[in-house]
Amino acid sequence: MTYIQDQIRQAREVKGLTQADLGRRIGQPQSSISRIERGGDLRVSTLLEMARVLDLEPMLIYKRLVPAVQALTEHAADRSHSGSRPEKIPSLVGGVPEDAEEENT
């Protein structure tokens, strides 16, 4: 479960929040945030509140898809930090990408 705690800490730092700031926003003491970031128990309700404040989207994905999701998020993060315009990432949830050519043209 360390991955979740690492993501929470990183997102908090990116937003420029201290543990105390985050704690105040979700109604928890700073010590609880510290404990969570160090690997302590994390209630789902607390996770959802933290995600809301940190602009994160908690998701359950199949384990076999973890490498693909990680690659996509790392790619998106690299693009946003490079200062260049982000390229459009096609949907991976079925359907036809918007820029695909129609067969009947």
What attributes characterize this protein structure?
105 residues, mainly alpha, 434 Repressor (Amino-terminal Domain), 5 helices, disordered C terminus
**Major sheet description:** none
Q: How much strand content do the residues show?
A: under 5%
Could you tell me the CATH topology label of the domain at 2-53: 434 Repressor (Amino-terminal Domain)
- Count of helix runs: 5
**What percent of the residues sit in helical stretches (DSSP H or I)?**
40-55%
Number of strands: 0
The CATH superfamily of the domain at 2-53 appears as lambda repressor-like DNA-binding domains
Mind telling me which CATH architecture of the domain at 2-53 this is?
Answer: Orthogonal Bundle
> Low-confidence spans: pLDDT under 50, at least 5 residues?
85-105
Mean pLDDT, nearest integer? Answer: 81
Shape: globular
CATH class of the domain at 2-53: Mainly Alpha
| Class based on secondary structure composition and strand pairing | mainly alpha
Radius of gyration: 18 Å
Q: Report the span from N to C terminus.
A: 50 Å
Tell me the series of helices and strands, N- to C-terminal.
HHHHH
Describe, in plain words, how this protein is organized in 3D.
This protein has 105 residues and is mainly alpha-helical. The protein has a domain at 2-53: lambda repressor-like DNA-binding domains (434 Repressor (Amino-terminal Domain)). 52% of the residues lie in helices and 0% in strands. It has helices at residues 2-14, 19-26, 30-37, 44-53, 66-81. Helix 2 crosses helix 3. It is globular, with a radius of gyration of 18 Å.
